[in-house]
Each structure stands twice: as C-alpha cells, then as structure tokens.
Amino acid sequence: MANEKYSTVHYHNYLELDALLSLQKERSAALGKAAHDETLFIIMHQVYELWFKQILHELDSVCGMFRTETVNADNMQTVLLRLQRVSVIIDLMIEQIKTMETMTPLDFLEFRDFLFPASGFQSMQFRMIESTLGLREEDRMTYHGKSYKIVFNEEQTARLTAIEEGGSLFELVEGWLERTPFLRFEGFDFLTAYKKAVDEMVTKEQAAIRASEYIPPKMKEMRLRMVGDSNSYFKHVLSREEHERMIAEGECRLSYNATIAALLINLYREKPILSIPFNLLTELMNIDELLTTWRYRHAQMVMRMIGNKIGTGGSSGHDYLAKTAEKHKIFKDLHNISSLLIPRSSLPVLPEGLGRELGFYYGSGA
Amino acid sequence: MANEKYSTVHYHNYLELDALLSLQKERSAALGKAAHDETLFIIMHQVYELWFKQILHELDSVCGMFRTETVNADNMQTVLLRLQRVSVIIDLMIEQIKTMETMTPLDFLEFRDFLFPASGFQSMQFRMIESTLGLREEDRMTYHGKSYKIVFNEEQTARLTAIEEGGSLFELVEGWLERTPFLRFEGFDFLTAYKKAVDEMVTKEQAAIRASEYIPPKMKEMRLRMVGDSNSYFKHVLSREEHERMIAEGECRLSYNATIAALLINLYREKPILSIPFNLLTELMNIDELLTTWRYRHAQMVMRMIGNKIGTGGSSGHDYLAKTAEKHKIFKDLHNISSLLIPRSSLPVLPEGLGRELGFYYGSGA
Amino acid sequence: MANEKYSTVHYHNYLELDALLSLQKERSAALGKAAHDETLFIIMHQVYELWFKQILHELDSVCGMFRTETVNADNMQTVLLRLQRVSVIIDLMIEQIKTMETMTPLDFLEFRDFLFPASGFQSMQFRMIESTLGLREEDRMTYHGKSYKIVFNEEQTARLTAIEEGGSLFELVEGWLERTPFLRFEGFDFLTAYKKAVDEMVTKEQAAIRASEYIPPKMKEMRLRMVGDSNSYFKHVLSREEHERMIAEGECRLSYNATIAALLINLYREKPILSIPFNLLTELMNIDELLTTWRYRHAQMVMRMIGNKIGTGGSSGHDYLAKTAEKHKIFKDLHNISSLLIPRSSLPVLPEGLGRELGFYYGSGA
Amino acid sequence: MANEKYSTVHYHNYLELDALLSLQKERSAALGKAAHDETLFIIMHQVYELWFKQILHELDSVCGMFRTETVNADNMQTVLLRLQRVSVIIDLMIEQIKTMETMTPLDFLEFRDFLFPASGFQSMQFRMIESTLGLREEDRMTYHGKSYKIVFNEEQTARLTAIEEGGSLFELVEGWLERTPFLRFEGFDFLTAYKKAVDEMVTKEQAAIRASEYIPPKMKEMRLRMVGDSNSYFKHVLSREEHERMIAEGECRLSYNATIAALLINLYREKPILSIPFNLLTELMNIDELLTTWRYRHAQMVMRMIGNKIGTGGSSGHDYLAKTAEKHKIFKDLHNISSLLIPRSSLPVLPEGLGRELGFYYGSGA
Known about the structure:
homotetramer, mainly alpha, 2 strands, Trp/Indoleamine_2_3_dOase-like (chains A, B, C, D), two-stranded antiparallel ribbon, heme binding (chains A, B, C, D)
C-alpha cells in the first residue's frame, strides 16, 4: 500500500474527469427541447458548490484549531492563511456572477419552467457555511414564515442543527478574545487607562476650541456640542452595564470582554504579537463583507433576469436576497469597533514590561 | 499654427505633470502633524474626480448625439461604445475601493479631524453624472431635510439645475424609444399580437397541467393558480390605463410607448437591426447597476472605517450611502421589462416584410 | 414523459450534488498522509475542467453556425454573444489563479510527490479548445521533441486529430471573411480606392513637412524618412504577391482576401451592418489575448510554486508555459490589421449606394 | 496657525479641483481637429502618474524605515502594510488597461500624430519606481543602444542616478536578511542541519523506490535518477562557492547569507516571529509579478492599438514592453527559493530554545 505512492497517476483519472464531465444533465434536453444555455446554468451552479465545499473544508479546519484547549501560536498563522483563502474564493464567486450575466432573460425563459420548483434556497452547503460562521436560526430571514430548514430533508436538517449547536466560529473567536492575556498585566488595567485617555483627549479638544480666535462663534458652539456628544458616546459604549443591556435587547452580540480585547488589538495592532490577531479580525470582517457583496450582486442579477416576478423557488428571489444581504451579516460588532478608536497621539502608553512582551526586535543589535 | 503639429511634444509637458503632481496638499503636514496616509486619501479622491470628468465627457457627447433631429445610425454605434466605456470606468472605480481599504481606521483618525467638514457629498461632478443620467431632484435623498444642492455655491447650483432641466439621458432615450418605427408596420400591430400570444401560452399551459397524470392534485392546484396569477400580471402591466396610473402614482417612470418599444427590442434582440438598440438598453442597465454597486461598496468601506459614527460631512455616511444605493437607481423600468417576456417558442411570428427589414444576410448567397 | 416537466425538481438532485461532491479523492489521504491543501488543488482543477467543458460547448455551437451554407444574420448576433461569454469565462479563469496562489510552496510539497507524473499537460479538453480555435499541430511546442498528443490514449488522440482536420474556427472565420460582399460593389473596388487614399495621405503629409517653417531641418529629415518608410510599409503589406510570400514562409496565416475584408470592417466599423462583424473580430482577439494572459499568469504561479525545477509532469512547467503563452496565439494576423489603418479623415468615401446599404436609420424622419 | 485646524475645509478646495480638472489639454483640440478620445488618453495617463506618486510615497517611507540602524519590530508591520498597498495599487493599474482598450485603433489614429514623439518611455516616476525597488542601469533594456536616461533632462538624470546609488529596496532587504539572528543559535547551525536533512530524505526515498514491488523496473530507474539529480541540485545550490560563482557571472544577485536566511524564513514560516518576515518576502515577489503582468498586458494593448508598427516614441512599443516584462524583474532570486524547499516531514527539528524564541502562546494556559 505504501508503494502506491509510486504507481502512475494520470491527470484524467486523478480528477475523476469521466464522472465529473458527465454530471451536467440538462432537463431541457431530456424533455426534448434542448436549450443551449442550460449547460451554463448547471455548470456555474456546480462550480459554486465545489467552492462551497472548499470553504467548508477551510472553516472546519479553522474551527477545529480554535477548539483545542490552548490555542497554539503556530496554528494561528495557519488559521489566518486559511481564512484569507476563504476571502479569495468568495471574491472569485463574486466575479463569477458575470458569467451568469452573459445569459439574457429570454434565454433563461427557454428552460426556466423545467426547473420548477428547484431553487438556490436549497443549497445545503451554503446554509452550512453561514451556520459555521455563526449565523443563528433566529438571525435568519424566515421562508414564507417558516424555518429556512423546511426545504431540507430530515438528515440534512439534523446536520444543520448540529452545526448550530456545536459552537460556531463566532463563538470560538469570542472565547479566544476573552482569554487574551493582555487586558490586565502586572497592575496595568487597559480599560481604566483607556477611559482616562478618552477623557483627557476630550478636555484638551474642548479647550482648544474655546481658545481659538479663528472659529466663528456659531461654529464654535456646533463643534463643542459634537465633541461633547462624542464623549457621551464613548462613556456609553465602554460601560459594561450598557453593553450587557444592548446584548439583552439584541442590539449587539459580542460579549463585553471580547469587545474590549478586540478594541485593544485594533489600537496596538503594530505590536508584533498582535499582528496575527489583528489580521485575523480583519479577515473575519472581510469574509462578512464579501458574502454580503455576493448576496447583493446575486440579487441584482436575479432582478435583471426575472424582474420582480417570483424565482423558480416560488418567492421573489430579488427581494429575499437583497434583504438577507445585510441581515445575514455575522461580525457586525467587529465593524463597530472602529467607532471606539481614538488617535494614536492620545493613546495610553503601555507599561514598559507589556511593551517588551508585545514586541521583539530583529536586527544587528540583538 | 497648423505647423505646431510638428513641434516636439514631451510626455511630461503634455500631461502637465509639474502641475498635476503638486496638487496633493496634505493638511496634516501643513498643520505640523504629517500623517502618512493622507496622501493616499487625496490621490484616490483626485483619481475619482478625473474619472468623473471622463464619464461626463462621454455622457455629454452621447446626449448630444441623441439630441440631433434624426438619430443617425452611425451615431448609435458610437453611442454604444461610449456607454460601454462608462461601464468599464465605473467597474474600475469599484475596484479602486480596495486601495482605500488598505488604510486602517486608526490611520484615518490621524488626519480625519483636519478635514472637517469636507465630505464626498460635496462632489459636484458626481451630482452632475447622476443628473445627466436622469436622477431628478425629487428622486434624491434629502440632506438633513434640505436639498442636496445646499452644499454647493450659487454658480454650481445653477449648473445642476440647468442639467436637470435640459433633458437627461433618461428622457432622450425615452423619446428615441417612442419614435422606434417597428411597433406598427403595414398592418402588423405588435401589441395586439403579443397580448394574443400571451393568452395562447397561458391556455396551453393550463390545459397541460390539467391533463397531466403525474402531478399530484395539490400541486396541480398550486401550479394552476400560479399560471393564472401570471396571466393577470401580464394583462395588468400591458394595459395603457394601468401603466399611466402607475406613472401618476410614482410606481414607474418610463412612458407606455417607450416601454412597449423596449419590450419589442428585448424579444427580437437577435434581429440585426435591433442588435445595437438591445445592447444600448443593456448598457444603460449596466451603468445603473454598477453605480449602485459602487455606492454600496463605498458604504461598506465607510462602515469599516468609522463604524456607525457620523462622517466628516456631519451625517452617518454609511446609512446615507446604503440608502441611496437603491434609491438613486434610474433605469429601474428597463430592468422590469424582464418580467414581461415570454419564451421564444410562444412569440408571435413577425410578418415576412418586417422580418426582412430587421435582418440582412452576409454570405455567399446574397 | 412530456409531463415530467411538471414533476418536482430539487436543486440537490438537479445538480447531481451527491456525485459531484464525492469526486475529490485526495491521494495524500488515501496514502495515510492527509495534506490539507490537496483538496484545493483538486477542486480548482475540477473547476477549470468544468469551465473548459462550457467553453467547448460554446465554441462547438459557434463553429456549427459558421458551417451552415448561408451564414444567417440572426446567427451572427448569437455567435457574438457566445464568444463574449467565452471571454468572460477565461477572464474568470485568470482570476482563479489567485486561489492557487494562497497555497505556499511548502504546502504543495506535502502532496506533490503523490501526483507524479500527472500534469496539466494531460488536459484533453484544453487541447481541444486550442485546436477548435485553430491551433495546428505544427504551431505547437513539442513535448520533449515529440507530439503533444503523446500523453493521450488512442481514442483521445483520434478525437484531437478529428478536430484538427474538421475545420477550425480560424478557417471558418477566414472563409466567412472571404465571402463578405463589400469588397466590390457596383464598380467600387475598395482595395484600389484604399491604395490611392494612402498615397494621397503620404503626399500631403510630406508637403506639409517640407513647407513648415517651424520644424528644425534635422527633425524635418527624420520625419520625412519616417513618412516615406510608412509609405513603403503600406505598399508592401497591401500587395497580394508579398502577402502570399509571407504565408508561404509562415510569417502570417490569414489569406489575402480575408485580410482585406478584415481591414474594411475595421475601417468602417461604425456602419450598422459592420457592427456585428467588427465586434466579432474584436472578440476573437480578446479570446486570444485572454488565453495568452492565462498561460502567462499560470507560468508565473508555477515559478513561484516550484521555482525552476521540473513540474509534476517531468518538464520545467514554467518555461513551457511561458513559451507557449505567445507561441500558441492564433489570431495574430487580426491584431496586425491595426498597422494597416489610416485616419478617418483620409479614408476613401464610400459610394452612395454602398453607404446606404451599410447603414439604416432609426428616428422620426424616416 | 494651530487653529487653522478648525477653519472650514471644502471638498472642492481640499482636492484642488479647479486646477486638477483644467490640466487636460487636448492637442487635437488646440490644433483645430478635436478628437473625442484624446481626453481619455490624457486622463488615463494622468491617473497612472498619480498612482506612481503614491507608490513612490510608500516605497520611500519603507526604505526609510529599513535604513534606521536597528530595524524596529513595530516598523516591520507598517513596512508590510505599505508594501501590500503598493500591490493593491498595481493590481488596479492592471485593471485600468481595460479603459484604454475601449479605444479602437482608428480612434487613436485621430490624434496619434499630434503626440509625436512623446512616449511612455518618458515617465520619470516609473523609472524612479523601478530604481527604488532595485533595478540597476545594467539590468535595463537599452534605448536604441543608449542609456534609458537619454530621454530625461539633466536634473531628472541626476535624480535617477542618486536613487541608483542611494541603496535600493533590494539592497536594504538583503542587508536585513543577512542580519537575521536565527541562522546560528546557541550551537545550532541551520545550514549544516539542513544539508543533513536533505541527505537523509534522499537516502530514504531511494531505499523506498528500490524496495518497492509495484514499480516497474524501467520506471524505477527513471525515478532513482530523478531523486539523484535532485540531490546534486541541492548540493550545488546550497554551496557557498557555487553561489558566489553564480553571482560573479550574473546568474543570481542575492548574497549567499541573505539567500540562506530567506530559505529559513520560508521553511519555518508558521513560527510567529517569522510571520511578518515571510509575508514581507511574499509581498516583494507579488510586487515583482504584478509589475511584470502590468508591462505584459500593456504590451498586448499596444500590439492591438498599433500592431507591430513603431510607437509614438519612435520604437516598437510592443517589443520593448514584452521584452522588459521579464527582464526587468528584480526579486527573481526570492522566487527561486521554492526550488530549495523540502517537505515539512523531512525538516530538521529546531532546538527547544530556538523554537520557544520563535513562537509564543495565546490562550488560557499562559
């Protein structure tokens, strides 16, 4: 068996091309009214499903690495590379919509009826991707008032439920953020220091506005109000109680501690030890945005293809897709971290020890 | 003077590079707190404005050609090529957002305050593009309850109003569609023939469903209802009275006659004489979709950059952009034509004479 | 059977997902040394093969349409749309290289040995695409001094030979160009008129240079020589004898008559009747360029993956691909038409009748 | 002055739009024969020059950071982000070629003569980019047998020479690699360990081939020979003497020590401390490849535009560009590192201390 390594492999067999290239079964041809463009329709959906499989392959391995007790530093680099690959694939999926757009509505009509009521809603793998990332049943659009699972059979439904209950990437990343060891370090309390820094920044800014001889009085008032509002905003969102109220009322999802850890990572992202964590959070936002763009472009394409009429799945495809584009976003809270940042010049200085811990030096000196 | 043709031209002077490359005036540097990334911010906006100028150059020439009494066939091909160029440029503008995304929120904070209250809302050229395409003042989002023109000076406001009143591309295309000579041709009335074809198609389809031994009764009912609904839909939207009611109530904008002409062009698009018109309508939809995608991606980028907080222009940039993405669409009615199409096999056959008129033959025979 | 139309279709079955998603058989896993990235390697090649199938589907239909006795005008529009689709697909294939680039050389080493000696050289469908477009056996790079067919089995070799002998798209387009009815029209001989126009243009230009008071004498000389050279160039390449010598010596391939017809189409491309022919020639050049870019980018990727070492197929993949990039170009002669053009202002005016024939008018007037 | 911060900034003034939008001076219009497409020609070149300025802004800052005595770890992250930005910009520049491709050769002819002899060869900033990256005068294509600097004036020539002599990014990265502290660490000598690992891998592989019952004798011979060749290859390229001979004869450029350091970084790239260095080397290769692709696509576009005839600069633009595409590559040696890698399973194990130094742990445990 070990020697099989040396047997001869041929490209054709390795890729199972005989099987692969015989799976395009045009219904229009089977029904005696061959429509040239149905082949494109099948192939582009099959290509999507192959990419879905690849994405799941990456996401499953990433979740697996997050699940090990101590997250290993070597793994983190691999986690990052695999998430970046997922982004590259979704980017390609967005480009692929252009192939579908070479089909005109009239060409689609030639075989559209033969597909009824099959629909993209029925893609099991796409639902698995969303759930693995962290989309919960309650976050989803319902399907004519019923669960999105209604289009799947029992075994598929069970698989989807298992994913939803098994700990999504969202929850794994949240847990990892909460464990970050940087928030408290030998007497340095990041959150207290940050709140103080915000206060100082605001006070200084207000003083500068009041002292200015060049700002017209009316403008001064407006600017002072803006700075004040900004101050209350920070106070508000940096408070644990307020954050927990927001979670309870569904306004955000990421836990308080994880949020503060993500804030720290964003603020000190050029420290070498935070480089991978920062890139990782960025990549999660990327994936979220790219999936949103994909749903959105998809909605546009359906609109052009069939107008406002209902899709083959029996519902208005365009409306559904357009609505899910934003609603199915998962890492919104990470995007919102941006509103908590202050300029570098106002940042609290890290204590010596922590700074050393977070950085290291290359170069002749060492 | 004619001989200047032969004087020596140098790339550097031709492109006015001395001037061009001195127009990046970083405010952060001027104020003594040089922020590395402000240069990118300036350059990418200047590049956008250069592309806007190019788009206006194309749109103005296209409108000019539509305005001539008899639209010349040679012009139509040029019109098409120029609109296609506009699409290619907007596609590039969408790609360009990626350069902005290489800037992190923290880097932006380094100079963001210096820009207050400048804002992309103040791009005169972008407003001109929208108005030239056909966006009316009443279609636009208001700006804190006021006209979008409030951020422009008197002369700029006057220019925008002149464009709005001067006949937009939407109106010019509408007029051109209304003049299409194919709707009535020696006794052939397209609309009557089409309504009849829809009727026949529906009747045939219903009979087939009723006769089927394979469709379960419950499914039969559902399918019959769908076909019936589809029939009322066609009756509804092909009626002139109904169409005029929709226009009056703001549900659509394109005139009845222009809509029917666009329908004909879509249905018989492979007839050579309709090739350019079909491509032209397609290109208008493309431009509309691409601008929508650009606004949408732009909104995503702003969200990542500053979260839900207000933009430098003093309003929530993300919300504004996300809302205008769909609302500022101009050629929606062309997209909706898709819902009026029926399969080729059910199409009314064109009378011999018209068919000949619309087609011509290459090849040995002729 | 006819009623099967109404049976229930499910997305999952329609796309044969059970089969499709079970065709990724990682050899590293089978041999007990599972390498995570082999899945990507398999899936991206399978996706390529699916797109190859789609491209062949389009090219075969296009060739079929060209083969009918009288090329029908309606078909030409469809031919164009299908070639444009091929371009969109190859564009996507180029983008797809980015997915492969997310794999590092070290990751590839984990399973590379298991694939020996399978290789992309063995893709039957890609060879079919090249041959269908018009690449002849003699135009190809040899494979270690032997025919490229050596890696295929008997049945595959027979299919490739059949395509090579069956009339490629190059030959079909050449024949169609030769049949274009515009070269001679009621006493108007395009070629004679064109040669005369070139002469007049050159004479006028030389006179202007000589008469100029502003060009320095040395510069005058240089410019006169350039115009003169340009004149001989035109004389040279517009001569039938010279053209036939070039074909005989393998310097070009497209027949003299076809070349002149392509020249005419390029010169008068805004005439409506030439719109589709012009777009068609453009699309063939596009496809050629895109395939070249794909090979080239592919070569770059292989270089990064394995350096200058030999590929899994046992030859230096990078060198092979880099060399074929230019060598396997098929429609070079169409690209070269550009060098035969003169400015619109110097073009021979078409006789009234021909002008009318080539154009038609939309609009109120007619 | 400090208060200027609060003065009012308007988008229009901030971007210097009045000046910017008046720099498009069409020569065709000035000479009384306005050609519509010249505006595109000017604008797309001006956009390129703006991006060139941005690229130089990034490269200069990166070189500056490399020049400081001890390269600071925080800087390295910033270096990486700025190089990634350069890649994103060149990617966009490649896309931009599509805007130029919307111009047909005939449209270009309308104003091409007016530009003589201006040419893209005369772009000062592009030469500065190449030299800053590390292209030496001797690596460049000559210009009709003369230095590429001949098209520049004295002051420009001086600036180019200063860059060439001032220490390019290539040299700065080489120096930094040579200083990497990992090659020798408390008694561990990486190179010796690596050569031993290669030997062991080869011996094991040969034994496995000889012992196999499944490989046909002829195939065995071939495989043994391949493994043997591979062994000599490694011996060869890992030898300092051989490497120095190659440098002397111009076959490679990167110093021996820098090459070995780059090899180590590639082999252990998932160690956290090597994450940024690995990404940095990758990004340099990216930039090199993207510039190559840009030159190549540019050459294709020129070919389509003017065929094989000479460009406005008086030389065959296509040939020049096609040749420089590969020849002007700067970081070839980094690409070649791939051929020196062996699979992870055969890698020498790092001594405990070094492993700890290179990695660190996130998570609960610590």
